[in-house]
Amino acid sequence: MTKDTIGIGLVGTGFMGKCHALAWNAVAATFGETRRPVLRHLADVDVGRARRCAAEWGFEAATDDWRAVIHDPAVEIVSIAAPNPFHAEMACAALAAGRHVWCEKPMATTMADAQAMLDAAGRSGRIAALGYNYIQNPAIRAIEALVREGAIGDLNHVRVEMDEDFMGDPDAPFAFKNEARSGHGALDDFAVHPLSLLGRLAGPLAAVMAEQAKPYAAREGRPVETHEIAMALLRFASGASGLLVANRAAWGRKGRIALQLFGSKGTIAFDQERMNEFQLFTREDDPRREGFRTVLAGPAHEPYGHFLPAPGHGLGFNDLKVIEAHEILAAIDGRPARIVDFADGLAIEAAVAAMARSHAERRWIEL
Amino acid sequence: MTKDTIGIGLVGTGFMGKCHALAWNAVAATFGETRRPVLRHLADVDVGRARRCAAEWGFEAATDDWRAVIHDPAVEIVSIAAPNPFHAEMACAALAAGRHVWCEKPMATTMADAQAMLDAAGRSGRIAALGYNYIQNPAIRAIEALVREGAIGDLNHVRVEMDEDFMGDPDAPFAFKNEARSGHGALDDFAVHPLSLLGRLAGPLAAVMAEQAKPYAAREGRPVETHEIAMALLRFASGASGLLVANRAAWGRKGRIALQLFGSKGTIAFDQERMNEFQLFTREDDPRREGFRTVLAGPAHEPYGHFLPAPGHGLGFNDLKVIEAHEILAAIDGRPARIVDFADGLAIEAAVAAMARSHAERRWIEL
Amino acid sequence: MTKDTIGIGLVGTGFMGKCHALAWNAVAATFGETRRPVLRHLADVDVGRARRCAAEWGFEAATDDWRAVIHDPAVEIVSIAAPNPFHAEMACAALAAGRHVWCEKPMATTMADAQAMLDAAGRSGRIAALGYNYIQNPAIRAIEALVREGAIGDLNHVRVEMDEDFMGDPDAPFAFKNEARSGHGALDDFAVHPLSLLGRLAGPLAAVMAEQAKPYAAREGRPVETHEIAMALLRFASGASGLLVANRAAWGRKGRIALQLFGSKGTIAFDQERMNEFQLFTREDDPRREGFRTVLAGPAHEPYGHFLPAPGHGLGFNDLKVIEAHEILAAIDGRPARIVDFADGLAIEAAVAAMARSHAERRWIEL
Amino acid sequence: MTKDTIGIGLVGTGFMGKCHALAWNAVAATFGETRRPVLRHLADVDVGRARRCAAEWGFEAATDDWRAVIHDPAVEIVSIAAPNPFHAEMACAALAAGRHVWCEKPMATTMADAQAMLDAAGRSGRIAALGYNYIQNPAIRAIEALVREGAIGDLNHVRVEMDEDFMGDPDAPFAFKNEARSGHGALDDFAVHPLSLLGRLAGPLAAVMAEQAKPYAAREGRPVETHEIAMALLRFASGASGLLVANRAAWGRKGRIALQLFGSKGTIAFDQERMNEFQLFTREDDPRREGFRTVLAGPAHEPYGHFLPAPGHGLGFNDLKVIEAHEILAAIDGRPARIVDFADGLAIEAAVAAMARSHAERRWIEL
């Protein structure tokens, strides 16, 4: 059956590279897009790997030169899933070449690079989005709608925790993530995800007071330069107070992003490890019946119904990326879209930078 | 990138039709199949719908004649997601035409039809599998492995509950599912799923004692002919005892399949509504530390790692169908595969028939 | 401060003996009773133990002769916490002596004895209550009220599971509980508790179809005569269907009594292992907000407020016995009381007997 | 049965007054104390209430003069459950009169008063303990033991949240707790409880960075002077990092004290709303079996077995106070005891004062 198409290029074949490929493969059948994405060109520094992945994932061509992807005339959208230090150069080049860009988080490794990316996006007139897929969860979208509708009254206090344990082993060898050139640690590696959620759910930050910590001072006798733990007190522009904490060394936590939103009439809680449900408390006339209800995601929570007509059956992590691809296609078509664009991304980077500075100067930093 | 392909035909465009289409679209990129499925031909009784879905889902052709799909020389595998009464005729015809068949559960509406399907499969030499996707869950596969390894000792007692609430409203109009010609009710509509799990986890049944119940005797003044609730006492060939209950009118349950497996050294529990985790209890030397542990699915649980390298990030319901498609491709290639074939399916149908008879005759029925 | 008193006698110093003593000690201060219980006389077959416990628990006298307790003129209520085979003789004697009786469950070891106890109670004009403390839980009382008020509509299906693991070890020595003279096993040892709950929550039983099972056929080479597992299909007089299962060999379960009550408008769930909360689902106009709510017990749930003014702070198992003591005092005073009297107790024993017969005869038994 | 006794005086008849009375009533029977507490004298400013409560709770005498209690020669221990501003005067007077003191938390409303109390205790040679009952929970005691034994390796990060909702209603009238003279708000009203736990579980604090917040700036048009929310970044003397947050306006939370303890080999979590269980994660050789285990409190967790021989049956909030009374009697007898003495209490008050100062000066404060 003929249908309009849109050409996809992808740079990178790791966790996120495959995730983008799966999303581009699935989005048309899931959402019935007006234009069917066609996987045109895949780049990886290892050309053999590029070829193998291209064959598996359905790309028409493979290369070890990311510029070949960007300049391939069949490519209209470039997915960037290369290591963080390359994001800025690749994104700016792709935008300059007239491509739409879907770049994985975090935006860049310096504020200057992030600003350059935003400038490039502005000049290009193209869609430039960042890969913050957690905001695409139907449960999160429902939470956001409930907050906006006043279901829990005025939001006055927020907590968010992001925990995994891949840096938990004190006996693991010294690695790239222990080096200062990899970034701050949990702060930029992790906390950007909760910040993307807070941006949607609680609005802009006004001030932060942060602290970082090292559970293990050294590995293999070599001082660890990054911090597995980042914590911050928050003040939002709305006046709400908050807490953020991220820990890459939290044994037993595998994908925890635990949100608590407190309002004048109720409370909402969520944990990404149980991503298909959220907890809602609202005051009841009959106190015998009051309690946090566990709401299971279903077709009532957009866009769950595009995947499944049956509630409580559950989406997966990769499905969030399919939704993100759909939103990017909507943005390209000029329809309303739920994306983290480069301006939103810069705000997240600015918050990270403010937290790093707060830690260094041991004081509150206004944003 | 060129790669061997295998042609897919699909009959049906409902919940399961889309689910098959998504699975065929995703399986090669997810698992790196040796042959890439190509979506060749889609049938629906409504040709307009067939065409729209074909365009969205990526099928090359559409028809309102299911025989056209089966006899399309480009089609090598036929996915059957048409209403249950058509399964037998379609599956037999497809097998006779030399196609592999992936037919949605339940197998058929009569034991005779189910037997005819098994016979047709035997004659064809083709792969004939049923759509029991819950057994494909990495968590379920891990539970099965743990049981076989003796992690909980000898299994001696099993309970399974399957509950949803789509028939819960007493004021809903009289519908097809209330008519006897739709089947028994929860028994064949629902209980086949738990039976597919018990077959893997607890082995064959030896005897059943069943009872069915109607929460609402009538709708719109018309007697309800089916039973929303089915319950059974079970005895397994191993000597283990068990309970099975299914309820289509269980308010608040959306996709619950709650398993409890009791052994001589431990216990395992699982609930499909939280499909990415299971509970494991084993005895500990130190009773202060004993407890059910919540294990989050991850790459240690095959084949989770084909979707995601990060544990605790979660698969969705549709991913189970992708795994099922992968297993069918493995079976076609002659590799070991985890499928419910027509012989397994017939055993499930036999258990259902025995339960229906037990209910009618109010006595234990041996299998 | 002077206050009217009421004299307490107790027979037995085990788990339940101490539990009664603690309850009699606490009830006046907790509830502000019109008459303060005074611990007059304690009996145990081991007189040394009787004396030690009397000193610790605050009894004025100790004896190894239970008849001395019953005939002590200072004793007005006799708590019977002796082994089950003695219940009937002691209760009948105490009632004949004009004492009120609070006898631990189960009532007796034969139906004839239970009937004799009921007759003795009728002749005496005294209060005769059984120790079924789980019905006293404020959460259970709230559930009962909600069901009666129609919060979940018409109750049409019930499930109850009672599981502990004290008989779980296959290598434990052959013990009294493995002998037929100890009773049926889980059926009378355990299932009486769920039956006491079902009697309050779902009304009388009409028919049962039961099965018992032995996880371990022998211990120390000697055949096990009792059944650690009892299961039953239920039909209530109301027409509701149900399931009951009890397992004394359920590894990891320590005090689980899991209830599920399904109605035409909602569902309630409860687990004694988290005795201070219950789950309530009711249909909502907005499906985005629908879910099981976890209600924490608090002063809104009678009689929680007599223990604590703060919700969510929690009662314990022993507090349920204090409530039971309070209800017995209320009954003695002629006030409305929530007790399981000997007539209620006989109905429980009749259900157990019917299940045992159903198991033996492999057929449904009407009650 | 004769037994040595010890005389109890109590000042106050509110929530905590009754809780002390229940504990003194229950402790001997629960623990088999060498000396049986006898309730001698009860004071309340309302003499009628004092008399009614004395009659109910079993006190021999009642008064509206707290000094009469303290100087009653039959009184050996004074329980102080009067409003916070009276703690210092009463405790100092009781100690000066040679009585042992059990004073409810918080210690006092000023650091000077708290110091005076500690000095008075030192001069008296009597036992002076504070009512921090949460540390008495068998689950908390087990967590502490596990941490000390190294079950989770070296503790490197801690989080604690304490939330209730009694100040959640924005439309509630302006009340005493909204006035500055009542204290800081959540900081001293609430956070002292988590601080008592952290003192046992994580050791002394080295520095704090705190912030307080007001969800509702005014009530009835009058500015609210206290803060319902207190948050703090923590650094412990051990080098561990941490977070503390307390919220009296957290809708739906009724008695939440959520602890998370992260170590180099595992993690422990606990929530007071489910006080009879805790979560323990330790690394396993087989990653397929790794997960947080839910440990139910039982006789393996001291001193649970003094209440109940059966695990998983559950203690209640009031039972924690019974344990506290037992520990105070142990201390009086010169046995090892688990109490928060006035020196420990002063450390808690110092932490609160440091947090208040940190909030005021917007900087880290060393302790």
UniProtKB/TrEMBL annotation, chains A, B, C, D:
GO terms of molecular function: nucleotide binding; oxidoreductase activity
The entry's keywords: Oxidoreductase
First and last residue of the signal peptide: none
Domain Gfo/Idh/MocA-like oxidoreductase N-terminal: 7-132
Domain GFO/IDH/MocA-like oxidoreductase: 141-268
Pfam families: GFO_IDH_MocA, GFO_IDH_MocA_C3
InterPro entries: Gfo/Idh/MocA-like_OxRdtase_N, Gfo/Idh/MocA_oxidrdct_glycsds, GFO_IDH_MocA-like_dom, NAD(P)-bd_dom_sf
Superkingdom field: Bacteria
Annotated protein name in UniProt: Putative dehydrogenase
Organism: Aureimonas pseudogalii
